[in-house]
Amino acid sequence: MTKKIYIFDTTLRDGEQTPGVSLNPQEKLEIAKQLESLGVDVIEAGFPRASNGDFEAVKLISQNIKKSVVTALARCNKGDIDRAYEAIKYAPKKRIHVFLATSDIHMKYKLNMTEDQVLEKATNMVTYAKTLVEDVEFSAEDGSRTRKEFLYKILESVIDAGAKVVNIPDTVGYSIPAEYGELIKGVKENVKNIDKAIISIHCHNDLGLAVANSLAAIENGAEQVECAINGLGERAGNASLEEVAMALKTRKDCYSNETNICSEKIYRVSKLVSHFTGITVQPNKAIVGANAFSHESGIHQDGVLKNRETYEIMTAESVGFSTNNMVLGKHSGSHAFEDRLITLGYNLEKERVMEAFKKFKDLADRKKEISDRDIEALVNQGVVPIEDVYKLINFNVTTGNNIESTATVKIEYNKVEKIEAACGDGPVNALYNALERAIDIKPELKDYSIKAITSGTDALGEVSVKLTLKDKTVLGIGVSTDVIEASLLAYMNALNKLN
Ligand code: KIV
Ligand code: ZN
Asked: Signal as a keyword (predicted)?
């Protein structure tokens, strides 16, 4: 019999706990919309008590997402639960997700509580959350290292208190598949009222086993899988949504399941998340890595040409990779461009299409052939428009191997033009020094990285810059065929986000 597996996405909560990742509410909303269109059942939008920014983002998402359940995380205390409720209350489908650690090591050293105290607190707080919403999930943090009899007891108690979903996380990624599968089987067999709740799993990837553990749990009765796009998450990350979804789809013969995921939209969401978080997907990453569907060896290529199933277990199209080899160029019109955007999974308003088309035309003057990767790099930039408080007017750099680099930069800020010059250790450093003189804030440059979008000397360069001001960190992106210009645009983009 086919079983429904619920996909719970935690990119915006656990995924945002990836070191160095910080998303603003508009970016989170854009990701949430893409997740909804991908077909995820539950979107964990954040942890509202953690910060005002998180609260605002969850609220915005709950005001805009209609089809997926919107949930927010809360510790087992009334303050957290109230704050979570205040943020999710606008969503037509809402859930409060409360958690409390249940393993000996966490109870003793982190919570300084006994089993009885933890049991009482978890039960009371699920009861309290139920007064606010119908749908409550309880997570037994560090569930995989919890004494089994205690795990059964606390799950039974929270289900009695009204929890609709009980989650048994492998919080520290310590489990191995056979053991984790057995744990879920044990929960199914020993928790008396388990038929009144959905068993959920949440696996971390510290041993690289998060997806394997999730699948073993599904084989043993788990019905909800918590995962994140590109496998983002605390430390080594969570189970990657795309890998779980495609394993379930490709090996339906083993898992006889059904999910709501529209797999053709996977690649687009992965790209967007990578763009907003600044975390590049490794080329050999399963499902969404650039090499996931390329065949290098002659023997493999020959096999694929004769029958693609010789070396392909799923098609590139099935996860949304465009296999279109047609390139656009300066003679391409707006219709061809818009058509390509639709093929790539973008559904933009007319105004944004025209903005992107203008950027495309500018690029076509510098670059002969424009590929899908170039278009994605150009368009992702404008997905969440930001106000250009700082505008670049022009710049000039002199550099060489035996001279100190010097740069001049002219910007407009609040309708006032400013021009500054500075020296530096290389052209980018000189430019950034000049720019810092022209602005009245002193952000700290935390990170700078550069990559080529495609190959060739006229390739687009994409620069990411991380700036911190007080307690706010933002990621700025700049793209250009000129990497010096891309560097400056990335800095300006980050400045505008800080504003
Ligand atoms: O890893 C974990 O245990 C968690 C819980 C809060 C679900 O993220
Ligand atoms: Zn986690």
From this structure: no
- List phi, psi (to 5°) of 11: -55, -40
**pLDDT for the residue numbered 99:** 98
How much is the pTM? 0.92
Instruction: Compute the distance from residue 138 Cα to the ligand 1 centre, in Å.
Output: 10
Give per-residue pLDDT as tens, 157-173.
Answer: 999 999 999 999 999 99
Domain ranges for the chain, please list them: 3-277, 298-381, 390-498
- C-alpha pair distances (Å), 376 with each of 38, 322, 348, 451, 491: 18, 11, 13, 14, 20
**What CATH architecture is 3-277?**
Alpha-Beta Barrel (3.20)
- Residue 359, SS3? helix
How many CB atoms are closer than 10 A to CB 110? 12
In sign, the C-alpha dihedral spanning 338, 339, 343, 347 is positive
* Residue 479 burial class via C-beta count within 10 angstroms: exposed 0-12, middle 13-18, buried 19 and up: buried
Beta strands at 69-75 and 94-101: parallel, antiparallel or unpaired: parallel
- Over residues 34-44, the mean pLDDT reads 98
In this structure, which residues have their CB less than 5 angstroms from ion ligand 2? 14
